[in-house]
Amino acid sequence: MMLSSEFFLLAGAHLLALASPGPDFLLLLRGSLRHGRGYGLAASFGIALANGLYIALAIGGFSLLQRAPLLLAAMQWLAALYLAWLGWVFWRAGRHPAVLPAAAVSPARVAPWAALGTGFLSAALNPKNGVFYFGLFTVIVSAQTGASTKLFYGVWMFGAVLAWDAGLVYFIAQQRVMRALTRVLPLIERGAGLLLMLAAAALVASRS
Question: What are the residues whose beta carbons fall under 8 Å from the beta carbon of 19, sequence distance 6 or more?
């Protein structure tokens, strides 16, 4: 299958969105430093699964969030609560001194399924993801585009999310990078916690 200008436009818009730091980025950064590469990779897969769910809904032409205002409002409130809780967890953790890089992956092991669930919730409870993917397929993808081509787009975007986040985790997990970041880990956690709580407040404010 030849790649069309439609694909490159879709892929470019998607990659720009991936490159924009958000709650998922903060989760992977902090989680990889505190719990190691395994945690980060499991969380990356959870984030990709949630994105895959929204992609599948967009390909199917269903915009549950736009057709059900009550569902959108409920998701926004859940997202605000989750972001506020996650921000508070980060902020509290930032009050403790950073551990040495060599020990950063061992003291606080987290089960892979728990890391996967945390990543999934981080992406699934962000209503912007659903609206973004539906808008992407509505604005860029032509109504004449075949189902097989749309499926290819969806698989590519799922793979792009997973590859981007996993690549970020592998970068953070390098000893030199981890050593440098661990020195300022409490500052990173407090800053990330503050940003997440501000994001939660902004989400609540947007409902009023």
Answer: none
